Amino acid sequence: MSRRKSILFILGFFVLLVLIGCSRKPKYTYFGPSLEFYINDKADAFLRYTQWNIYINGESLYEESLVDKFIPENIKGAQVVVLTQDINAPSIDTTRLFNEWGIGKNNMGILLVLYFSTDDELPEFVSITSNIGLGMMGYLSAFELNDMIDTHFFPELENSNYELATLVLYHEIIGFIYTEIYGYTSYTYNYDTFVERLYDMMEPLPSENSLNRGLFGLVLFNDFPLWLFILIVLFIPTLGYIGFSITGKSRGGGGRSIGYWFNRRK
Amino acid sequence: MTKKHKVMLVIGLIVTLVLILGIGVASAFNKATKYRNDIYNNRALIVVAVEARFDKLEELLTALNGLEDHVETQLDKITEARKAFTTADATEIEETFEEIESGVNLIRIMIEDNPDSFIATAAYNNYMAEITATINAITSSKVMYNDAVTAYNTFIQTFPRNLFLSTFGFDKMDLYEPNILIN
Fold first, then answer.
1. What was the pLDDT predicted at B153?
2. Cα gap A102→A254, rounded to integer Å
3. Is A232 on the interface with B (CB under 8 A)?
């Protein structure tokens, strides 16, 4: 075999490997988590402040629990994720979604899916589905979570709006996790700050920043020459892979749900 | 090409073929093992969901006020069903499931007919959420089990794996039936 043929053979082999890699089954049945992970506003229902608040506080709970030496190893890593869905969008199995996103380390996850009707100009809240992870269900029952929804979410929804209702419910849930599960002495949040800042926050979310969208995002948002993108994808597949994996990495803790969920309508 | 070269070429081809086959068989064996372990894991989840259902039912019943007679009868039934569940053989387990579900339905009817008999009327919705969630957990765990069995069966029955995996003990598994829990 001539040297040229050998080189061609090796190149062909690598191309084949890349093609096999590309042909792998997509990881998500419906869609992947957002870059913020803790908030995925598919229905486009939330203002930026609500999303930022959930993102920052959800991340803090997770990160703090991982480094807190007083929390037992087997319950560290609680994650509370909020997803909004348009009721006209194809229906989703929240348990499948929960498991594909891997919400919560040690199965200590909660997924809240808020359904909205977007037929009118402003989204209208329709129902909320709560899915509790396999580990979390030993600490927070559907009974207790439903009680939080009845006591905090629906009254707030009646008195103000779904954004504040969601924020209050979110903080009640993470407050429960901090105090009742992780043994913190107290957890407080400032409702007045929610009201004051709800319409003020203009800071784009990480997923709205094109640099964080990965290589495709760079091209889509015109900050990156197309020819350079093609060059990278064609000739340096490894670099392309690293680019995607760094910028689009999911932050689920690998948690699982066995379908311990319930739905409440408005 | 000399005779020596030809022999070397044939030997090389045979070695390559054996290597490729060996890697293929090992890979199929490892994947089938993973799929089978997924099934065992999902089977255990059904037991977890059923046990959780017993726990919640007992909690729920003891919290009911004003229906003591009914509650006591139901608690006895649930306790018996739980005992039967842990010791049941293949033929009894279906009965155990029916017992649990009829108990749950009775409690649900009792609650719906007598919402004032609760410690607090506000708790009514919470109990309903709990009942729904535990039912959903059992249903979902059965679905996940069947998904795992389907993935495994498809894997081992697909050509060329169907030619050799059964010799390693990877046989077709049945979809959900109550008696699988004790096998």
1. 94
2. 4
3. no
User: Which of B136, B141, B142 to probe the A interface (max A CBs under 10 A)?
Assistant: B136
Q: Is the pTM of this model over 0.90?
A: no
The residues near A205 (Cβ < 8 Å, ≥ 6 apart) are A35, A36, A48, A51, A52, A55
Q: Is B62 a member of any domain?
A: yes
Q: Tell me if residue A254 falls in helix, strand or coil.
A: coil
| CA nearest to B140 within chain A | A259
Judged against a pLDDT cut of 50, whether residue A115 lies above it is answered with yes
CA separation for the pair A182, A179 (Å, rounded): 6
Q: CA-to-CA distance for A182 and A178, rounded, in angstroms?
A: 5
Radius of gyration of chain B (CA): 26
Q: How many distinct structural domains can be found in chain A?
A: 1
Q: Least CB-CB distance to A143: which of B45, B130, B139? A: B130
A173: domain CATH number? 3.10.310.50
Q: Which ranges in B63-92 belong to alpha helices (H)?
A: 68-87
Contacts 24+ apart (CB under 8 A), A60-67: A61/A174, A61/A177, A61/A178, A62/A105, A62/A251, A62/A253, A65/A182, A66/A105
Task: For an interface test with A, give the residue of B38, B126, B143 to mutate (most A CBs within 10 A).
Answer: B126
Token digits for B102?
A: 């009829």
On the question of pLDDT at B117 being above 50, the answer is yes
Query: Measured between alpha carbons, how far is residue A157 from residues A50, A126, A243 in Å?
Result: 14, 11, 42
Residue A134 contacts residue A107 (beta carbons within 8 Å): yes
Position A17 scores a pLDDT of 65
Does any domain span residue B29?
no
A10 three-class SS: helix
Residues with Cβ < 8 Å from A1, sequence gap 6 or more? A9
**Quick count: other Cβ atoms within 10 Å of Cβ A111?**
26
User: Residue A258: its chain B contacts at CB < 8 A?
Assistant: 45, 48-49, 137, 140-141, 144
Residue at A210 is within a domain: no
Asked if residue A82 is part of any domain, the answer here is yes
**A120 within domain boundaries:** yes
Could you list the residue range(s) of the whole structural domain that residue A76 is in? Answer: 39-205+251-265
B67 lies in a domain? yes
Q: Give mean pLDDT, residues B153-164.
A: 91
Residue A129: phi and psi, rounded to 5, are -110, 130
Host domain of residue B87: 43-141
Question: Are B129 and B5 within 8 A, CB to CB?
Answer: no
Q: Do the domain assignments include residue B119?
A: yes
Is the ipTM above a cut-off of 0.90? Answer: no
Amino acid A121: pLDDT: 80
